[in-house]
Specification:
Blueprint (H helix, E strand, L loop, with lengths): L2 H160 L3 H6 L1 H19 L5 E6 L5 E6 L8 E4 L5 H6 L6 H26 L9 E4 L3 H10 L1 H9 L2 E4 L1 H77 L10
Parallel strand pairs: 3-4, 4-5
Antiparallel strand pairs: 1-2, 2-3
Helix pairs in contact: 1-8, 3-8, 6-7
Length: about 400
């Protein structure tokens, strides 16, 4: 063969070998790439498997956590319900105990009040019964004495018509004094209890007063004189007198009354023993009216000496006022007793109020604890509802 042809053949063979080597090299590189891609695909599959396993594990953990949370929430709810029931029971027990204590204290307070009211009522009834008994006895005595007075008046009338006139009786000072004393005694017995006056009472200065009214302070005991000088008035009313004799009789009448006023003021007003004034009893309304109508200077002089002129009518007004004073004094004594009992009741009620306030604070504290527990339960329930509404994101799992 020609050498040229051989060279060409060798060149072709060399080119073919180089081409084949190049092709093998490319195939090897592609194989390496395929191997790398296969390795990456394996890694991707492994990662996908890991992600899938992680997702499954997360779902299992989420389910387990949800079950645990549900269990814990259920447990907490049961515990809360039990605590709430215990709190309500404690509150009910406290309220029931408090109500029992209140009932017991109210019963005790009512019992004490009833006992004290019964005691007061018994004392009042006893005083009223004693007063009624005394009034009945006094009324019977008054009726008895009135019957005696009626008999005495009948005898006086009989004596007046058969023996002497009333003017002759009044002319004698002793008879005049007895007449005034009897009339005064009858008036006082009809108006006052026997313990509140004293007849023919001897004072510390040795003077004997016809009647002494025994009144409580600040009024004090009041002396009453019944020996009014009626001789001058009897002479003043005689028809046969001339004008000069009438003037002389009027002057004598004024002088007798003035002298008697001074005597009453000096004898029967004793500082520290009697009141600062005394009463001069005039047994005839006509004499009393005559003095106030025509001898008012004597009335003013008597007032300056603190001697008050009284007639049977005005004497009744004085005795009525005296009864009012005595009743007021008795009422003050009863009011003092009632005030003492009311003071004891006020102390009992103050203690009751303090204990009631203490019980109210306990109840209020229990109510506050229940409110706080309810607030905690509301918060837990709200969180549980939020957890139930949560949707797990699946973006990381895809």
């Amino acid at each position: 063969m020609p050498l040229y042809f051989i060279y060409i053949t060798l060149a072709l063979l060399t080119s073919l070998v180089g081409f084949m080597l190049l092709h093998f090299y490319k195939l090897e590189r592609q194989h390496d790439k395929l191997t790398q891609m296969e390795s990456r695909w394996i890694d991707i599959n492994r990662l996908l498997n890991q992600l899938h396993d992680a997702r499954v594990l997360d779902q299992r953990h989420a389910a387990a956590n949800k079950e645990q949370l549900l269990f814990e929430l259920n447990t907490y709810r049961q515990e809360f319900d039990r605590h709430q029931l215990n709190s309500l029971k404690l509150l009910q027990d406290s309220l029931q105990h408090g109500l029992q204590q209140i009932g017991q204290r109210m019963d005790k307070l009512t019992e004490n009040t009833q006992e004290k009211l019964l005691l007061i009522s018994g004392q009042v009834e006893k005083r009223l019964f004693d007063g009624f008994a005394q009034t009945t006895a006094t009324f019977a005595d008054v009726v008895k004495r009135l019957s005696l007075i009626d008999e005495a008046q009948k005898r006086i009338t009989e004596l007046s018509s058969n023996v002497v006139s009333l003017q002759h009786i009044l002319a004698d000072k002793r008879s005049r004094g007895v007449f005034g004393e009897i009339q005064l005694h009858a008036l006082i017995e009809n108006a006052l209890p026997a313990k509140n006056y004293s007849l023919q009472h001897t004072l510390s200065n040795g003077k004997r007063v016809d009647c002494l009214l025994l009144l409580p302070e600040p009024t004090g005991s009041i002396a009453i004189d019944a020996k009014f000088p009626l001789e001058g008035f009897r002479k003043l009313t005689e028809i046969e007198l001339s004008k000069n004799e009438q003037r002389a009789a009027a002057a004598q009448f004024r002088q007798d009354i003035r002298h008697h006023i001074h005597a009453v003021a000096s004898k029967y007003i004793v500082p520290g023993e009697t009141a600062e004034s005394a009463l001069l009893f005039i047994p005839a309304e006509a004499v009393f009216a005559e003095i106030h109508a025509h001898y008012y200077d004597l009335v003013e002089e008597a007032q300056r000496h603190r001697v008050w002129l009284v007639s049977p009518t005005t004497m009744m007004a004085v005795l009525t006022t005296t009864c009012a004073i005595l009743k007021d004094a008795a009422t003050r004594e009863q009011i003092h007793l009632i005030q003492e009992h009311l003071g004891v009741l006020a102390k009992d009620f103050s203690r009751f109020k303090q204990r009631m306030d203490h019980l109210f604070r306990h109840i209020q504290k229990a109510y506050t604890d229940i409110q706080e527990a309810k607030t905690s339960a509301d918060k837990i329930t709200s969180r549980f509802e939020k957890i139930e509404k949560v949707e797990l994101s699946t973006d990381l799992l895809q």
